[in-house]
Structure formats: C-alpha cells, structure tokens
Amino acid sequence: IDEILQALAVEFGPAARKKGLKLTVMPCGLTVMTDRKLLRRVMQNLVANAIKYTRKGRVLMGCRRQGAKLQIDVLDTGPGIPEAQLDVIFHEFHRLHGEDDGSTGLGLGLSIVERIARVLDSEVRVTSAVGKGSRFSIAVPMAATHIPLAVPKRAPVRPAGLAGTVTVLVIDNEKAILDGMDLLLTGWGYVVH
C-alpha cells in the first residue's frame, strides 16, 4: 500500500504546495489484496477532493489495521460536511460547495469512488465536522506476508443483462474521472470512447 500512497504524494504534492497545504503520508509496510488500479483511482479521487476543498491546513493519508482489513484514510482540514448532507455527497451531480469556492467539477467524483468501492467489495465511509475537516476511509483485505508472483486472473465482472459488445461514451472535463470511468468500464468488457 505504501507504493500507492507515496505515488499519490508525488502526484498531488505540487497541487497541495500551490495552495499552501501540507500533504503528509504516514508510511505503511502492510500489503493489501485488491485491484491495485481501482484502489489507486479511489485514493486519487479522495486526495484530489481533499486538496480541492481545503483552503488552509493539511491533507493526511494513513492506514490502520481493522481485523483482517486495512483501513486507508484521507483526512483534511477543509470546511467539513454537515451531518445532514453526508448521505447525499455520493449522489451523481451533487456538489455541496457552490461556485463561490472556486472549484470546478460536476459532482461525479464521489459517486465514482462509491461505485468502484462496491466493485472492490468495500465501502467508503466518511466522518466530518463542519469547520474542522473530514475523514474519508476505505477498508480492503490485507494480504499474507508472502504473495505468490503468479496470481490467476479473474474474469471481469460485468453487470447482468448486458450481453454482447456495448460501446459507452464518457464525457467529463476532469481527466481523473475520465480515466476512472475508462478503467471501470473496460474492466467490465465495454468499448469506451
């Protein structure tokens, strides 16, 4: 997991510094057993959102054991989310912060995160305090210390009822969202444009 978190620190470090934020990654020597690309996409979206909505302070990525799972957290010192809004932030096209916050996007990032988490047989949890910040977490299975080099590939999971070749057009103004949708849909066997 440390490889993924350190790569995200390198990727998002310049954006955090540009806003005057401190981006910190707590090292973790544990290994997880999950789809690396999908987990990375979830973490990218969570870190990007944390940086986007945090005006001052810091963003922290870290891990903690929870039984046989590893909980990966992204914490920020952003504006926080009112408790009444915690259920709707994962809905498509829903953004809590208005045009006055200077951020862009269509409100798809967290809905994509939630869907990818389901594919990973996990869920994204959020706790938040208005004026203090938020914590987004995903828990994934930990791997044994010795992982075999040749892991048999599983057939991609495709939603039921969509047999044959299906072409999907994905439109968004954020590259990270386009990449995430491309990864998810091609994994299901669709042709993506």
Topology, please?
Blueprint: H1 2-18, E1 22-25, H2 36-53, E2 58-66, E3 69-76, H3 109-119, E4 124-129, E5 133-141, E6 167-168, H4 175-187, E7 191-192
Parallel strand pairs: 1-2, 6-7
Antiparallel strand pairs: 2-3, 3-5, 4-5
Helix pairs in contact: 1-2, 2-3, 2-4
Can you offer a commentary on this structure?
By secondary structure, the chain is an alpha/beta fold. Helices cover 31% and strands 21% of the residues. The protein contains four helices and seven strands. The strands form two sheets. Strands 1-2-3-5-4 form a five-stranded mixed beta sheet. Strand 4 and strand 5 form a beta hairpin. Helix 2 runs antiparallel to helix 3 and helix 2 packs antiparallel against helix 4. It is globular, with a radius of gyration of 17 Å.
Radius of gyration: 17 Å
Write out the strand line-up for the largest beta sheet, numbering strands in chain order: 1-2-3-5-4
What's the quaternary structure here?
single chain
- SSE series: HEHEEHEEEHE
Cα distance, first to last residue? Answer: 31 Å
Summarize the structure.
This protein has 193 residues and is α/β, with parallel strands linked by helices. The protein has helices at 2-18, 36-53, 109-119, 175-187; strands at 22-25, 58-66, 69-76, 124-129, 133-141, 167-168, 191-192. Strand 1 (22-25), helix 2 and strand 2 (58-66) form a beta-alpha-beta unit.
Give the key terms.
alpha/beta, about 30% helix, five-stranded mixed sheet, about 190 residues
